[in-house]
Amino acid sequence: MNVRNVHVGWVNYWSQDVSESIRNFFAMGGYGGFVWSAYAITFVVLAANLIFTNMSHKRMIAKLRRERAIDSASSKVSQASHAADESTRSAQQGDVI
Amino acid sequence: MFKWIHKFGSPPFVYRLCRGFGPWIGWLCLILIIGGLYLGLVKAPADYEQGDSYRIIFIHVPAAWMSMFVYVVMAIASLVFLVWRLKLADVVARASAPIGASFTFIALATGSIWGKPMWGAWWVWDARLTSELLLLFLYIGYIALRNAFDNQNAAARAAAILALVGVINIPVIHYSVEWWNTLHQPATIAKFDKPSIHISMLIPLLMMVLAFQLLYAHNLMTRIRTGILEREKRARWVGELLESGRV
Q: Per residue in A58-69, pLDDT tens?
């Protein structure tokens, strides 16, 4: 008895069995097109939902960080211009008095 | 006791709660989906009447249940917002609408795909299908109404009233298969009798129901965080949060 042949035969038998069961699994008893398209639509919609949610959260964080940076920059500018206004006003008042 | 409840009205507390639990709920959901799909698509036997086409049930029923559950959450949150003026309730209602619309769309689409081989038609105008379609329009109307106003507070109040009026549709959807003659099959699980489903199909179905619930919770928690940041952007704690990097 050739040991090698027995081995190859077993592999062939196994791979045939597996490929057939995989084919059966995807065929879904003839309803494969219906079943898999239903699952595909579901997971595309749910995944899109999750991706959109995470993206809009990150976008909100970036937006608030930007606004804060602008606010702090403009508050420095407005403080400076405020001080300038004060000095001119007091100068004018000084003129009147 | 009241102190404990009061905490749930505090935006920083809710924000940290959502940030802490959100990821764990997401991972648990993924594990349940993998397990549920393995048991439902591989292990469960074919149906004696419908063959393998019945396997659409493992996404169709959870999505249909969630489409109603999310709407009820939205309506309760809207009521709380209108009565107690709790802003967080409005954040929850607003965050729920797109998720609920997605579940409703999935229920309709998978039902249509299941209907074709079983009934011979993609769509029929019967009570169950029509009331579920109305639910989709309610979600879309809610989202459109919110975007139609410039004033955020006016938008929130108008949308909350719409959500409350629309809740009448929920019992109509549930009892439609009993009240009218319909092509849709009657309830499989949610009835007073024993569920008319074998345990090998019931377990993956319940796993998928729980998975969809957790998916909603996970998605909602992230959306609540986005909503809180937007509403509280002037608050000192939000500034500290943005600077700390752990947003």
A: 999 999 999 988
Residue B187 maps to a domain: yes
State the residue range of the domain holding B223.
11-244
Segments of B81-221 assigned E as strands = none
- The beta-strand segments (E) located in A1-97 are none
Could you give the number of structural domains in chain B?
1
Q: Does B65 map to a domain? A: yes
Rounded Cα distance, B231 and B243, in Å: 18
Residue B81 lies in a domain: yes
Q: What's residue A31's pLDDT?
A: 92
Residues of A in contact with B229 (CB under 8 A): 60-61, 64
Task: Indicate the burial class of B22 (C-beta count within 10 angstroms; 0-12, 13-18, 19 or more).
Answer: middle
A65 CB neighbours in chain B (<8 A) are 242
CA distance A86 to chain B (A): 28
pLDDT in tens, B182-233: 778 888 776 666 667 888 999 999 999 999 999 999 999 999 999 999 989 9
